[in-house]
Amino acid sequence: MIALHNITKSYQVEAMSIPVLKGISLKVDKGEFLAIMGPSGSGKSTLLNIIGCLDAVDTGSYRLDAEMIAGASEDRLADIRSRKLGFVFQLFNLIPRVDALRNVELPLIYAGVAPKLRRERAMAMLQAVGMADRAAHTPAQLSGGQQQRVAIARALVNQPDVLIADEPTGSLDSKAGHDILRLFDQLNAQGLTIVMVTHEEDVAAHASRTLRLRDGVIERDECNQRLARVH
């Protein structure tokens, strides 16, 4: 599903070029659940942004579902993000003035889906994440865990191939975080590929594999026993 070969990425700060990723090669199979960990400045967020087609590589190659990403135009990248990728962020990024149903509908509006069909699909996805009874509630009327479930429904409504999650439990209490991870477990068991950045070992334990970065290189790439999974 995901294949990166010898990826490098630097950022320009005034007259200095700061290397962030230094020759990353990585493959993620369809249906895998990968956690990316590392200390601050290790390059994990940059790597996630590249996998999510939000940032471009300097050198190297990236294929997503056999499609070459490196060098693609901005319009092409936007189309790929819309069709193949769903995003979940630490801070939910819901539109505060509209209800949960409308928030989940938003990607379908951009995709040009007819109003009746997009409402049906959005409600079905809210049902799938246990939030159908909160469809008419705005984000301010929802708990953090409920907002993250709505954000997950929005990420999945276009039926992406890969779910990209950046610290998805970082703003949640332990119970809400546990509930979100249990939902991730269920989605992965249904075949969804998940790539997640986290700094918490117990969160990473839900993944089938953990990639540990340090100073822009892969320090360790290890399979997990997934003993911490709870169903």
TrEMBL record:
Q: Which domain of life is it from?
A: Bacteria
InterPro entries on file: AAA+_ATPase, ABC_transporter-like_ATP-bd, ABC_transporter-like_CS, ABC_transpr_LolD-like, MacB-like_ATP-bd, P-loop_NTPase
Query: GO MF terms on file?
Result: ATP binding
Give the record's keywords alphabetically: ATP-binding, Cell membrane, Membrane, Nucleotide-binding, Transport
What protein name is recorded for this chain? ABC transporter ATP-binding protein
Q: ABC transporter domain: which residues?
A: 2-230
- Name of one Pfam family that matches: ABC_tran
